[in-house]
Design brief:
The chain is α+β, with helices and mostly antiparallel strands and 560 residues long. 19% of the residues lie in helices and 11% in strands.
């Protein structure tokens, strides 16, 4: 009997110890426990595993490898489409081109915040306004579009045109701030209604300002820029001492603030337009698409829509839409977005309607020997400007940066409330292997080392003395704009007969065909260029956003 009691006691002790260890193990592997230190971590601060949410208007594009620059035809023989293998990270892209309605929202915001009737703000609204005179033609009557295309509600869902590359960039920055402003308001970090009721030239929201110096956002108004938990009373600690909250503003680690809207890179745009994912068979592509859709023809072969044009383009001399009726492509100029089928990524009008600006500076060759991952030419690295007080310097009305373009138009490129930017210097570049200066536009194609004028035997000081005329790309220079004694702008057009090219650091790539182009230009691999400070009636744009986190949210599995 005694033996049985002893055995029973031992069993009970064993069970108790097992339960104790299990509970300890459960506590140590708590959801809020750090795998690095074992300390309890507040899950609200850590935001572990929070996934990026697609911004308004964006479609997810899963990245991958593709052959960039592989065209089916090359009747122009301009030698700028050598096929190269590239890899693009996952990203988001606008489902459609930016429309007149979307751009007018931008203009209305600028007009309300920076009234153009006031002399101090005149250049802000004027500099952002599209050039409606692009519709004029010496031998054509197009005044109807000149007067109505941008603002008439009948054209609200048509892609905006008359916008140069710089204006497209500025719109993307504005869109970033407005989207993040709405997100922070929704989550209680900004006063409700402030984005419409309290915004002014001296009190506005900038995403980067909020992240780096939240107390300076909205002019430092604490009634607008709220602290997380401000609606709750502060906790009282020992001896009744009030414990101040930490990390009371939204941060990158909060997972709320989206990356910036921007123009897509050329590689991203071409990858998204081609949408070779629709041609995939296991781990290979079944051929190369000539257009964003499958097949070698511009008309639909599907039973329900057989014979319908799949894009808006010029079909021949004097033929911008076809014979009126069922075979017409539905447009003579541009057409409303979503009028033609989307490609396999769900993106509309990646061929036809309007061509589109991309972020890259144009060069005839894609240098895949230097890089084959997220290829982009046009990097200018900057950093926040730090004032004498050791804090970031906020742009004011007096320090706004105005750029005078080669055509004389003045554009404001830094607005009150934003953080002033300066080029990176030796503090960031010293002994780095991946970059050594702020401006990398001419790297391996346009810098002194890649020019025939470079003297490899000369000293560095001799190299710096080379004449400006000894440029690799001897293009016209129209930037000699000055002001006379009466304040009138003096424009000096470059009339030199010795220029050999139009390529310089201020021409940008645009992709895709337009309503003015033949089917040849609908090939996603085709590429052209245009001055960044000029606009046309056939170039528009759409925005993109980088993807943070995993390449895809979908679980990968074999198709069989």
């Amino acid at each position: 009997m005694k033996v049985n009691k002893i055995i029973a006691l031992r069993l009970m002790l064993s069970v108790t110890m097992i339960i104790g260890f299990a509970s300890c193990s459960k506590k140590s592997s708590s959801k809020n426990s750090s795998r690095a230190t074992g300390w309890n971590v507040d899950s609200k601060k850590a935001s572990s595993g929070k996934k990026q949410v697609a911004g308004p208007g964006l479609i997810f594009v899963e990245g991958g490898t593709f052959t960039m620059g592989k065209v089916q035809d090359d009747v122009m023989h301009d030698w700028n489409n050598t096929p190269t293998q590239q890899h693009v990270q996952s990203f988001y892209m606008d489902e459609t081109e930016v429309t007149n309605f979307m751009y007018l929202e931008y203009l209305d915001w600028l007009k309300n915040v920076f009234p153009p009737s006031e002399a101090n703000y005149r250049y802000i609204y004027e500099g952002a306004s599209p050039d409606t005179l692009v519709w004029r033609n010496r031998l054509g009557y197009n005044e109807t579009m000149t007067n109505n295309y941008l603002r008439h509600p009948a054209y609200a869902d048509y892609p905006v045109v008359g916008v140069n590359w710089i204006q497209a960039q500025e719109f993307s920055q504005w869109r970033t701030d407005r989207v993040n402003e709405a997100i922070l308001e929704k989550n209680g970090y900004l006063k409700k209604g402030a984005k419409t009721n309290d915004v002014s030239a001296e009190s506005s929201f900038s995403t980067e300002t909020y992240l780096k110096a939240p107390t300076m956002t909205y002019g430092g108004d604490e009634e607008i820029v709220l602290k997380a938990g401000a609606r709750k009373s502060p906790k009282a600690g020992k001896a009744g001492k009030v414990i101040e909250q930490k990390n009371v503003y939204a941060q990158r680690s909060s997972g709320l603030i989206l990356p910036e809207y921007r123009l897509p890179t050329e590689a991203e745009w071409e990858y998204a337009a081609a949408a070779d994912v629709g041609q995939r068979e296991y781990n290979i592509y079944k051929g190369q698409k000539k257009y964003p859709w499958s097949g070698s023809y511009t008309r639909s072969g599907k039973r329900q829509s057989k014979g319908d044009q799949l894009a808006n383009f010029k079909q021949g001399n004097g033929d911008y839409g076809g014979i009126a009726g069922w075979s017409d492509d539905g447009a003579d100029i541009t057409n409303a977005v979503k009028k033609y089928p989307a490609n396999d990524f769900g993106l509309y009008d990646m061929a036809g309607n309007v061509a589109e600006w991309v972020a890259d500076v144009y060069r005839p060759i894609i240098d895949n020997e230097a890089n084959d991952f997220n290829y982009f030419r046009g990097n200018r690295y900057t950093k926040n400007k730090i004032g004498a007080d050791g804090k970031v310097e906020i742009v004011t009305l007096e320090t706004m940066k105005k750029d005078t373009l080669s055509n004389g138009k003045i554009i404001v490129r830094s607005f009150p409330g934003q953080i002033a930017q300066v080029p990176v210097d030796e503090n960031e570049t010293y002994l780095r292997q991946n970059f050594d200066k702020s401006n990398n536009i001419n790297y391996r194609d346009g810098d002194k080392q890649s020019s025939k004028y470079y003297d490899f035997g000369s000293s560095e000081s001799d190299t710096e003395k080379q004449k400006a005329s000894a440029r690799m790309y001897n293009s016209p220079v129209h930037d000699n704009i000055s002001t006379d004694s009466l304040g009138q702008m003096v424009r000096k057009y470059d009339r030199s007969s010795k220029r050999t090219t139009l390529i310089d650091d201020k021409v940008r790539v645009y992709k895709g065909g337009s309503w003015r182009d033949r089917a040849y230009w609908l090939d996603p691999a085709q590429r052209r260029y245009f001055p960044q400070d000029m606009a046309t009636d056939y170039i528009g744009f759409r925005c993109a956003m980088s993807r943070v986190g995993p390449k895809s949210d979908k679980r990968k599995s074999a198709r069989n």
